[in-house]
Amino acid sequence: MLSRLPFETQKRIIIVSFIALPLLLLLTFSYYPALELIRLSFTNWDGMSQEKDWIGFANYREVFTNPEIFGVFKHNIAYFVVGIVQNIAAIYFAIVLNGKLKGRYFFRLLLFLPYILNGVAVAYLFGYVFDTTDGSLNFLLGKLGLGGETSWLGSESFVNYTLASIGFWRFMGFNMVIYLAALQSIPADLYEAASIDGANNWQKFRFITVPNIYKIIELNLFLTVTGALEVFDLPFVLTNGGPAGASETFVMKIIETAFQFNDYGLASAMSVVLLIAVVVVLSIQRYFLNRGRD
């Protein structure tokens, strides 16, 4: 039957058929839940009752005026700072391991292995590393004469940087592999021509490497920013937001509001605010990264 139709009609039918199912799944599992989330953010739904009373922007006012809710965003700054350092380290190791270093394949595997580990398992692993009394880190520092009684997860001043350092260890290898793939796509002739012209290593990096991997840098920064704003597993497993809420993240606050206090309306509003925050931060990032390049 289909073969009797004109070729252009057949092509349109096939294209629509291939697009229809993914689009249906996208609407069902992405756009509809997102719209429902926005609708619930204007209600006081407790998650169980059939009544969902409309309360307007009351939930949003609560989010922005309650420092115990909106103020936890400052705890995510540590993850963003460490994430930037992580990308710099990933670029460095990618450049080093892209050369003719002996054993480079072993070192690539060694740096990438932490990424394939389960996040909860990694959290428990570092729970022993950062333990105040029996932790391996304090033991090593004690042997080196640099102290050995630091409460890495019990200090309000740097607990978030301690947790973020775990993310550094886990995700740096993943970013390195992405940068490494980008570096291997750069023609070697460019570097050879630059060497003939007398360019040093810094000039090669600045004028050849960075422009050619710029989009990959932008991609990894996108993943870094979203990861920093949406971090959950490490503080939840290791500190449960402690000490005294110093490591509680915005996602942890959302889950606590929804499942502990049964305030799904407020939790929905917080989720929408998080989504807006991610969009705003990424838009600012994209503006500064692409300024003068288009």
TrEMBL record:
Membrane topology: Multi-pass membrane protein
Cell membrane listed as a keyword: yes
Organism domain of life: Bacteria
InterPro entries assigned to the protein according to its UniProt record, in alphabetical order: ABC_transporter_permease, MetI-like, MetI-like_sf
SUPFAM superfamilies: MetI-like (SSF161098)
Parts of the chain that traverse the membrane: 12-32, 77-97, 109-130, 158-182, 213-232, 266-289
Domain ABC transmembrane type-1: 76-285
Pfam families in the record: BPD_transp_1
Keyword hit for Glycosyltransferase: no
Cellular component annotations (GO), alphabetically ordered: plasma membrane
One biological process term in Gene Ontology: transmembrane transport
Keywords, ordered alphabetically: Cell membrane, Membrane, Transmembrane, Transmembrane helix, Transport
Compartment(s) of residence: Cell membrane
First-listed, main subcellular location of the protein, grouped into a coarse class: membrane
Family per similarity comment: Belongs to the binding-protein-dependent transport system permease family.
Annotated PANTHER family: ABC TRANSPORTER PERMEASE PROTEIN, INNER MEMBRANE ABC TRANSPORTER PERMEASE PROTEIN YCJO
Protein name stated in the entry: Binding-protein-dependent transport systems inner membrane component
Organism: Paenibacillus curdlanolyticus YK9
